[in-house]
Amino acid sequence: MNDLLVWLFKSACIFSVVGLYYHFILRNNKRHQANRVSLWTMMIISLTIPLIEVTVKTVLVDVAIDSQNLNEGLNPVDEAASVAYWQIALVVIYLIGLLWHITGLTRQLAHLYRVISSSKDKSHKLGVIYIVTDKLPSPSTFFHYLFVREGEPLMPEVEAHEYVHIRQFHSVDLLAASIFKSVLWFHPWAGRVHQYFREIHEYISDEEVIRQYGVDAYLQVLNIYTENRPEPVLVHSFASFIQKRIQMISKNSSYRIFPFLGAALVGMALFAGMSFKTSYKARSPRRVTESRDTLPAPALSKAMVVDTIITFDPTTGKESMQVVRSPLSESELLKKFPNTIEIIDTITTYDSDTRKESVMIVKSKMIEAYNILISMELAKDKPDLEKINIWSRKGKVK
C-alpha cells in the first residue's frame, strides 16, 4: 500500500517536470512528429521510472536480537494492521477517483459504439467507413470511422485532413492519453496531455494537406470553419483549434535539435534522481543461544580465611586491630568443599528462520569448590573470563 503511494508521488513529480518542459520548450516547435513521440515518452517515463530501481551501493546493517525482536517472532502481526490509517484513506480516495475516470472513459466508448451501431447510412471508401449522423460534429473521425452529416458535402482538403488522422492512428494517442489522465487524475495537469495530442494531430494533418493542395487554398478552407460544439474526447473534429492552426501554419519553420537534446538530458536526470538509490540490507540474524545458569548460592563466608592482625605503634603507644579476609586457595577449597552439587542450565534458543523462541532446561553436576571460585570471580569488577572457563571445565562432573 505504501509502495503504491510512493509510486504515485514519484510519477506526479516526474510528470510535473517533463510536462512543464514540453509546455514551454517543445509545444510551439514545428517538428510535430517529434513532439508526438515526446508526448508518448512523457507518459511512459512518468509511469515507469518510479518502478525502476538501480542500486548503486549496498550497506549491510547488523540487527541485534533483543527482547523486542523476540516478541515480534513470538507474536507475528499482520502487515496490513501496521499500515497507518491515513495511508489507507489516501489509497481508498485514489481508487475511487480512478474508478470514476475509468467509468467516464467507458461511457464515452459506449456512446461512440451506440452512434456507430445505430447509423443506418454507412459507406466504405479506401478502408474508411463513413457514418452519417447528426449526433457528432461533422466532419470528425474515430479510428477508421469518419462521421459526416447527411447532405453536407466534404471538401477534398477536409477529407484528406481526416484521412491523415485515420492512417496515422491518432485515436490510439487520445485513448492512451485518457488512460494516463485516469491514472494520474489527481494531478491538475494530467488532462493537458490529451489537449497536447489533439493539437499535434491537427498540425500533422494540416502539414500533409498543405503538401498536396498548397497553403493558400487550405487557409481559405480553414477560414470557412469556426469553432464547433464540444466533441467527445476520443473524436477528432476538423473544426478544432482553428486559430491555433492558422498561427502554426503561418509560423516560420524551426528545425532546431537543441530542445529535444535538452529533453533527453531532463529525462536522464529524472531517471538518475528517482531510480538510483543506496540499499540498506539487514543481515539475517543468526541463531542466538542465550544461557542463564541457575547456580546454588555459594557459602562464601566458609571459603574465606579470617585473620586478626594487631598492630602496636611505639611512637603513640596505641594499639590497633584489623580483621583481614582472604580467600582459600583452589586446593584448600577442594579439601573443604569436595561434594558434588546439582546446577540447572536454562537455555533459550531463537530461530531466525521461523522467528520462534524455545526454552530448554538442562541439569548437570559440579564440584562445589569450583562453583565457589566462579562466584567469587564474577563478584569482582573485572572478572577473569579465562579463569572462569578453566574452572567450569574442571568442575564438571559427568
Structural account:
By secondary structure, the chain is α+β, with helices and mostly antiparallel strands. The protein folds into 2 domains: 2-282, no CATH class; 288-397, no CATH class. 50% of the residues lie in helices and 22% in strands. It has 13 helices and 13 strands. The chain has helices spanning 2-26, 32-48, 67-74, 85-118, 156-167, 170-183, 192-213, 215-224, 242-250, 258-275, 330-336, 368-378, 385-395; strands at 54-61, 122-125, 128-132, 140-142, 145-148, 236-237, 276-282, 288-294, 304-313, 318-327, 340-351, 356-367, 396-397. It is rod-shaped and about 140 Å long. The model is unreliable at 64-80 and 286-293 (pLDDT under 50).
Proportion in β-strands: 15-25%
- Strand and helix order: HHEHHEEEEHHHHEHHEEEEHEEHHE
How many helix segments?
Answer: 13
Give the structural class: alpha+beta
Q: What's the short version?
A:
The protein is an alpha+beta fold.
Index terms:
about 400 residues; rod-shaped; alpha+beta; four-stranded antiparallel beta sheet
